[in-house]
Design a protein that fits this description.
Layout (H helix, E strand, L loop, with lengths): L11 H12 L3 H8 L3 H8 L12 H12 L3 H12 L23 H6 L18 H29 L26 E2 L6 E2 L3 H7 L14 H4 L12 H11 L14 H4 L11 E5 L3 E6 L5 E7 L3 E4 L8 E4 L5 E5 L2 E3 L9 E5 L2 H7 L9 H21 L1
Antiparallel strand pairs: 1-2, 3-6, 3-8, 4-5, 4-7, 7-10, 8-9
Helix pairs in contact: 2-3, 4-5
């Protein structure tokens, strides 16, 4: 222990401040290094226990600060207790927790009379949820919007303004409504009496000339000027006289050139018509007819007695059918089939007259009564139509 520590005239705070000054530390340096508040360090140096919130931590603070200064911790704590009058207590003593706040005895009448009791939630006012900064932002946005709107309106007003600049030459009439008026005649301006030349080239291009008598051109003139006898073959003397007589006949019967024989005048085709192919359904059956390009010509369930005539195409279509025992084919009025015996499904059946006649035989009406009834009805319809015409 350094000499002079037991001198009663020297205060503990003076010793501690002297040691701290020797180390060159301030109160903030001690607070940063010991993690003790600077106010607590000053209270230890002044032996003031009223600055501490909890008395149980005073002994630890005093000993830690004494060891930091290089002093004897136990001697320093005893001297601190003598000068401050501090009585150390253990941690479980009631006084270690410090003085408890004094609570007033509860008075029911006073609690009910209080308009703002602590146990009831307070209602927030409308203005408490409004931020002044938000109001300022809204005002700034409103001012900007008004400024932009006014600026746009002012620009639009300036654009729509029409400024009239006086010219050196007064306006005048430079066009005439009468197309018959001479193109080269100058026009006189009413105010300035200035002769303005007219664009004669444009007038001659866009203005028609007036005609005293209309000119009519026959539309069939070039056709009427064709002589049909120029390209006709040479005729014999005995053929020339009937042709001349025919040409001198009535206008509706007049024929120019040689006449063709009646057998040559008949309409002829290049090749005979292709035989017609029909699909017959003696009983209900599902059929689908597809063209060579993939187009579906027919896809349905044909009823009993229904017919479907195939269109004439360059490539023959193909057939896919269910219940093929009820499907027959009519080629040039003759019935072939069935497509397959029983209720089988047939596919890729070429629907050309050559393929059908080569693949199938004539239909036996005795084996299919429904087909026989269907053919009987089909043969009876033409007879009824002929009798109705007679």
């Amino acid at each position: 222990m350094p000499p002079g520590f037991d001198d009663p005239d020297i205060r503990l705070g003076d010793l501690m401040r002297g040691e701290r000054a020797t180390l060159g530390k301030s109160l903030l340096d001690v607070q940063r290094e010991l993690r003790i508040r600077a106010s607590y360090v000053a209270a230890i140096e002044n032996c003031d226990i009223s600055a501490f919130d909890t008395p149980s931590f005073i002994a630890g603070y005093v000993r830690s600060y004494a060891r930091y200064l290089g002093m004897d911790a136990e001697w320093t704590f005893r001297r601190f207790c003598q000068e401050s009058g501090f009585q150390p207590t253990h941690g479980m003593a009631p006084s270690a927790a410090g003085p408890k706040p004094q609570r007033r005895p509860s008075d029911p009448a006073e609690a009910l009379a209080n308009p703002h009791p602590i146990f009831l939630p307070r209602q927030e006012s409308v203005w408490s949820s409004i931020e002044p900064r938000a109001i300022g932002s809204l005002l700034v946005m409103a001012v900007l919007a008004c400024g932009l709107g006014y600026g746009g309106w002012a620009v639009l007003q300036e654009v729509q303004k029409v400024n009239l600049t006086p010219g050196e030459q007064a306006p005048g009439v430079i066009a005439a409504l009468d197309p018959v008026q001479e193109a080269a005649a100058p026009e006189t301006v009413d105010s300035a009496q200035v002769n303005l030349p007219r664009p004669e080239g444009l007038d001659r291009t866009y203005r028609p000339q007036a005609l005293e008598v209309p000119v009519l051109i026959a539309r069939d003139g070039p056709i009427a000027a064709i002589d049909p006898g120029l390209n006709a073959p040479a005729m014999q003397p005995e053929q020339a006289e009937p042709a001349i007589r025919t040409a001198q006949g009535p206008a509706q019967d007049r024929v120019y050139g040689p006449q063709m024989p009646p057998e040559q005048a008949a309409v002829r085709t290049v090749a005979p018509d292709a035989p017609e192919v029909e699909i017959l359904a003696a009983r209900p059956a599902w059929v689908r007819v597809t063209a060579a390009d993939g187009t579906v010509l027919l896809e349905k369930t044909m009823d009993a007695g229904e017919r479907f005539a195939l269109p004439k195409l360059e490539a023959p279509p193909v057939l896919r059918a269910g219940n093929s025992g009820a499907v027959y084919f009519a080629v040039n009025g003759r019935t072939y089939g069935p497509a397959a015996p029983g209720a089988k499904v047939v596919k890729n059946v070429e629907l050309s007259p050559t393929a059908l006649t080569a693949q199938y035989v004539f239909a036996d009406l005795s084996k299919d009564p429904q087909l026989a009834e269907m053919m009987a009805l089909a043969s009876a319809e033409p007879a009824e139509q002929a009798s109705a015409q007679d």
